[in-house]
């Protein structure tokens, strides 16, 4: 299989390559194509790949290019992880919100809306070019904000697109270890999880027919052994009856998160931007030392993840620092989609599979009934993040328990914001963008919505072009 990584100069690309070169994904890909708009970043990442340690047979052929149509020709799988505007764009996404007294985070709240408005047009262009140059290829989307981007892509790609994120799957694995419930690779039969990307809850964790989650939530010592268990007070978790995704820290501890961010000398985006501005030129000329430099930077970056939630001290788990999360999810999804065997993963996909078209070819055959929504209470055509069975036909969402209030209320509110954001980006609807900012629970103000959009338009002139007919 020929795999294309769109955003091939991205910092995490070596993780994908490392997983392809050894272990259970070795041999899955015959050629790896790296596409990026920045040739200097491609050169740096290629240097890291060439300097990676490995035994015989650990090399996967790599081709780097800045020509997207050429990269797409003959491709069977596209993995998208692009960042329009680079890390400098992330800095502005976060800083504009923070300067207005709001939470400054790249995928959550105001920063996430700005990021989506800038990114969706680029991803739609990628999808249209795929339909032209490799119409049978799958699109595995890791481009953030993953839920909104995937929802925007569905009308173009249909079942041929799935969104991935390692956050929910990581929560399940960490909770299972803490509860003493070893999970079988590729199986989520006893797992209950519902949500949107970066907004979800683990509500059931069965092992040998017994739900171990209530006991885990009542055990402060067990909760203290993993990231999400430390983010929230134990009495709060016991009353909630579920384990929130780590990004819900920004909702449940909003004031603490905002003040911790404001107290930091630099935003998370500024720290990463500074690191990469210094690192990438060094990587390109580092020769055999490139991988070591990259690995040191990767660990440093992991240590700073969600630092605002650890203001009282404490370090991330070694298993988190070691890496190996998102690339395993991505490659497991790709392997199942390519027909190499079914698996179960938490993915971003349509809440209810689209009905089978009523074409002449199937009018005489019995057609199975379309399943109901995986998350009751959310629209059937909305993209949600839930456990899925992944096959060569795509991702089938598994039915989940109806979320209680106020979880369902929060999901509905944020989903409406996501859909307004997608409409704004796809249709050039500035009023929808304003409504999205105003309606987000971390903004909740029409005055702030106008201030946010005005400042983002000054930072990103391409946003103003979205509202001009004939420019998009």
UniProtKB/TrEMBL annotation:
Active-site residues from the entry: 166, 247
Residues annotated to bind Mn(2+): 165, 198
Cofactor binding mode and count: Binds 1 NAD(+) per subunit.
Keywords (A to Z) from UniProt: Cobalt, Glycosidase, Hydrolase, Iron, Manganese, Metal-binding, NAD, Nickel
Site (Increases basicity of active site Tyr): 106
EC number assigned by the record: 3.2.1.86
PROSITE patterns (alphabetical): GLYCOSYL_HYDROL_F4 (PS01324)
Stated name of the protein: 6-phospho-beta-glucosidase
Organism, as annotated: Pseudarthrobacter oxydans
């Amino acid at each position: 299989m020929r795999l294309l990584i769109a955003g091939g100069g991205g910092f995490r690309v070596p993780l994908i390559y490392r997983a392809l070169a050894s272990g259970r994904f070795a041999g899955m890909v015959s050629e790896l194509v790296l596409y990026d708009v920045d040739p200097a970043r491609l050169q740096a990442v290629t240097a890291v790949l060439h300097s990676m340690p490995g035994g015989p047979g650990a090399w996967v052929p790599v081709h780097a290019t800045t020509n997207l149509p050429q990269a797409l020709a003959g491709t069977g799988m596209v993995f998208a992880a692009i960042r329009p505007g680079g890390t400098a764009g992330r800095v502005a996404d976060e800083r504009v919100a923070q300067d207005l007294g709001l939470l400054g985070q790249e995928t959550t709240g105001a920063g996430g809306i700005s990021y989506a408005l800038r990114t969706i047009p680029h991803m739609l262009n990628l999808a249209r070019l795929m339909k032209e140059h490799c119409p049978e290829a799958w699109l595995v989307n890791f481009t953030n904000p993953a839920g909104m981007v995937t929802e925007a892509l569905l009308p173009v790609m249909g079942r041929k697109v799935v969104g991935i994120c390692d956050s929910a799957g990581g929560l399940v694995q960490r909770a299972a270890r803490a509860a003493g419930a070893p999970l079988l690779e590729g199986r989520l039969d006893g797992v209950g999880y519902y949500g949107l990307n970066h907004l979800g809850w683990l509500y059931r964790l069965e092992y040998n027919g017994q739900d171990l989650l209530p006991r885990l939530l009542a055990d402060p010592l067990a909760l203290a052994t993993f990231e999400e268990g430390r983010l929230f007070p134990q009495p709060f978790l016991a009353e909630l009856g579920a384990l929130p995704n780590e990004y819900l820290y920004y909702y449940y501890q909003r004031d603490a998160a905002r003040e911790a961010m404001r107290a930091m000398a630099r935003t998370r985006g500024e720290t990463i931007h500074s690191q990469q501005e210094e690192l990438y030129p060094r990587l390109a000329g580092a020769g055999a030392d490139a991988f070591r430099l990259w690995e040191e930077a990767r660990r440093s970056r992991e240590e700073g993840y969600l630092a605002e939630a650890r203001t009282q001290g404490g370090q991330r788990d070694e298993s988190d620092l070691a890496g190996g999360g998102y690339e395993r999810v991505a490659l497991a999804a790709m392997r199942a989609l390519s027909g190499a065997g079914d698996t179960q993963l938490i993915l971003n996909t349509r809440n209810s599979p689209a009905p089978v078209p009523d074409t002449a070819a199937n009018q005489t055959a019995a057609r199975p009934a379309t399943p109901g929504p995986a998350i009751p209470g959310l629209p059937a055509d909305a993209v949600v993040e839930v456990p899925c069975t992944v096959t060569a036909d795509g991702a089938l969402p598994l039915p989940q328990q109806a979320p209680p209030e106020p979880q369902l209320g929060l999901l509905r509110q944020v989903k409406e914001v996501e859909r307004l954001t997608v409409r704004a980006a796809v249709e050039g609807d500035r009023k929808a963008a304003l409504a999205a900012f105003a309606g987000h629970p971390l903004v909740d103000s029409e005055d702030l919505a106008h201030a946010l959009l005005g400042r983002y338009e000054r930072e990103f002139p391409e946003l103003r072009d979205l509202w001009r007919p004939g420019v998009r």
